[in-house]
């Protein structure tokens, strides 16, 4: 099966991180193709940036339609995911939705670790959209301005682990979601040093999409709607 | 003051309905300018169509930035509204948000009258986004395929009024929201024949935007974010 | 149009503050008349005091019935508002309801700044009544016993501004509601020094009532009920 | 111990029904005194009527203060209960609160049987105030205009029992609350003919108040507030 | 009337505390019999331990069926309560359910004082099951490892009282629930030193069960189901 | 990897259905072992029966501990799942939790098709435990008494498909969950005849467990608790 992973951000360095984790997570025989948004921002942090990323991501999904068996929207916040599910006739998943579902299976209350305070509002609303906000213990983020979006994991390794311990000890989380494509793969690195399960968005999305493709449930009805799409 | 009313749909006939009701509702001295989305669908009914409309609407708001004192997103579901609020440094309102706030002031439980069953899911989620879903008595819609989006009010006048009475008698609504730009102005026509207040999106949006402009609260912080917008 | 603004508290000094802000906020041609509750407490802080204020306010609204086009219940917590809406056949708004609706249009999560800790429970329940509690970031209040209910703004200017910054930085509010008639007008003073929009109850109520009167939706059904009122 | 049962309605015939059921429910040694509101309506059905009843009930509780060990607010909807709890330094309970707590102990989802459709909104809001709305299966009411508030039980016995069966079979209720003082005692009559537990407001209130008096927990803090009550 | 109080834990020392408080709370003429779980853990703190306690408790209730008029499940978290209600044809109550209902009658927001941090998740879920989580101000617990489950009250008296004051001052609780059988009776000791009502699980359960037995509502329908129980 | 699938019911005929669907769903290389509860009921429909099934299921999981890489609790309602997750140090999933997570990825509002009306309450509470009740469109069930738990699919094929269409057309579901082990595999049969995706519990559980095992997140902290388990 072939999975198209779309990075709604324009940063190639983040696409590289996403691709690495996606390949590490994929089952043998799963082909991974990564695409980067042709326009938008380096890293989506606000509702407006998500609006732009949604359109860019849907455009990529539409252009390559027919060339893949499933799509991963590879930015936390899942820009455009709900619309893309209607647009295409194969399964689509997002980093947030997959992380939440995985976390909800591993524990009862989860916290989200993010890389910037500005992003918290947008993340909270994404959780609310899934109706799981009452299981959200907290969202904690790096306070520092980032040096380089491509090397966040290296630059703030200690601080990120400290935040993980904080959400368990102070906020009562029994699962941790490491949010955002720039942190793709970090969960794999640090999970053995943490007292509760740690969820990574990219690997959760790949695992769930593979599961959906194996279950191959019927396409959702609303999909027909984009037939009325004009220009 | 000058208000830019953006129709996220590409249908000029609907823009005409919107403009007429906007002018009827505006205070003396308020200038109304109506713009129609340059691309998208004739009438947004799904999440994907809303995603496209959101981008089209934000584009218009960005292009004309500086030429208006406030913006109305003139489609029920408010495509792009949250992002546009961050994008521009003047107030922006939407038909749904304004209708809900007006309804919430007039009563405790409201119902929404829509023109198509396909649109219900998208409307429900818009109400959930405002956290007022627990005050939503029901959403009822015309079942018939529409003859002409520009003449829905004339074509289905009787059926629409019947739906209004149904939500009061069967669903316990104490306020009715007539949803969707194609029905702009209908509330004005039928409100004296109905037992509870009837809310119109366009006139609510104009009234609330004028109110906000008079109060002129400070711009919201997140606005600075679009400064990081790239291409 | 003529608006009757009723202060559910017996403090004339607060009525003066309310009247000043109401006049500043009213459109040209809007006549403002302010009435003070004939009995009750100096400043409502508890459910029992609100019960008394509700009856006093409804009495004033009933006695002057016919002499106004709309009513503002001018105490945070809106004592008696829901009942008064049924009692009279013209629109009625309250400081809390109007503040919440304005805040909900300006942002996603709001905090309330109050003048006394004792009042927090009553304020929280008022927000719950509107079903918007899940958008309430926090309620913060002055801890000090007040010197004079009529000069709170002057006496605690610095502390109040500090609380405003706290709810933004610590609680994640993207809108601030300055609560309580004794603070009427303060938002106007300090909004340019704060990073997010600041909402004032009195001016929000005037703006929304003027909007409702322009929209003139039909009276709500339940109003007929007070016909069965006996003595 | 002496319990003051206050009927917030002015109808003596209903006070008689309340008194009979209160005496049937009281433990040996419990003295029951029933007072009727000095002003208000024959039967509270709206928010405005509840506002008047709240003030009348609180007045009675205040006037007789010192002469009782506990108070029952004997109308469904509990007009004034929250305020009265602050006003007096002994326990106060209401028909709705007591019915809901009893029902919540007997089952998971309850329905309310009421005597008039007009009353539904006010009842729903009372349930919301207790935060138990998500356990409310339905509210069903007699549709017929009442012949005599004092003889509703006799006049509509069959119809009321039919409603009880409907909420079990159609709405999934596993407990039934017979609401409103005019139906006091009916549960006792029909419970053996119904498949699930049936809760009566008056007897629940008496039982819970006796329990509270035996537990004699400390008075709630807010009570001190009415000390600031002026005239 | 005879009440069977079942301690779902295997600790006899806790059964002794439970029995003492149950006898102090019971009305004259009420016979109290206490049974200790034949297997399980010394003190239930997790979902798995609750699962075992639920089965052990239900077994005791089944074995002694016919010998009692009502059952109290005497561990906070009410292990097995919902199932036991279906199993037996007389009323059953639990410490948590009774505490919550009593607290909900005494105030609007309650906090829970627990004896171990590990127990918090299980307690929170028990509150969620009752749908009253939105009235939960906080859960605070002793941090120290316990010296002896039978002497927690003596060993940590000061710390427990400090926690009680904290939930009032910092968390806004207007009622305190002292949770867990090992603290049975503590409320009685300290309530006069605290500013808000303090609720004890055992005494609340006895009072409510006596009330239910006096009201004797009909058995709940689902009870018949255990007839299909096999081995 | 080896998966232990535990049927919390004692019916071997249902175990056979579960095993067949589990094998159809498993990836190559996944070994499936099915165990049947040693005691309990033929088919869990109530909270009490779930309590017994939980203990029986946990016992099997404990006895075979070390012989499997993951566990599936193979009854809708997930009896004992939360406790088993704490008990064992490898992942555990349940039919309901897996169905809900899969459904939440495929659509926004789901309905549940059940085989008996008696089971509805227990199913609703299981959905509430996951906090997804606000996305539950409806639960519809066969009304007829079942002929044979092992042949429900054959005996009621037409009726079950009719219920599926009803939840889409009347209740607004955009995903259907076919609930209960006796219906294992039915989704596979009928999904091409239905307008929206259809989710099967057993196959969802296998797919999600395989995904979790591939992600191998760390064991949850609470697991240590069962170390204190005594007898």
Automatic annotation (TrEMBL), chains A, B, C, D, E, F:
Pfam families: Asp_Glu_race. InterPro entries: Asp/Glu/hydantoin_racemase (IPR015942), Hydantoin_racemase-like (IPR052186), Iso_Racemase_Enz_sf (IPR053714). GO terms for molecular function: amino-acid racemase activity. Belongs to the HyuE racemase family. This is Asp/Glu/hydantoin racemase.
């Amino acid at each position: 099966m072939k999975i198209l992973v779309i990075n709604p951000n324009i940063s190639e360095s983040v696409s590289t991180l996403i691709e690495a984790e996606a390949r590490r997570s994929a089952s043998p025989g799963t082909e991974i193709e990564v695409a980067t948004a042709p326009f938008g921002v380096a890293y989506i942090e606000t509702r407006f940036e998500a609006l732009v990323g949604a359109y860019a991501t849907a455009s990529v999904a539409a252009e390559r339609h027919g060339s893949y068996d499933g799509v991963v929207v590879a930015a936390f916040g899942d820009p455009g995911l709900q619309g893309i599910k209607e647009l295409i006739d194969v399964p689509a998943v997002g980093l947030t939705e997959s992380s939440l579902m995985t976390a909800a299976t591993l524990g009862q209350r989860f916290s989200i670790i993010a890389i910037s305070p500005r992003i918290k509002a947008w993340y909270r609303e994404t959780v609310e959209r899934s109706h799981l906000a009452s299981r959200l213990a907290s969202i904690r983020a790096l306070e520092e301005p980032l040096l380089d979006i491509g090397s966040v994991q290296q630059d703030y390794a200690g601080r990120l682990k400290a935040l993980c311990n904080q959400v368990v000890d102070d906020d009562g989380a029994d699962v941790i979601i490491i949010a955002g494509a720039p942190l793709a793969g970090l969960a794999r690195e640090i999970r053995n040093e943490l007292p509760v399960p740690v969820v990574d968005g990219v690997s959760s999305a790949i695992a769930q999409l593979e599961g959906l493709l194996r279950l191959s449930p019927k396409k959702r009805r609303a999909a027909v709607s984009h037939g009325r799409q004009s220009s």
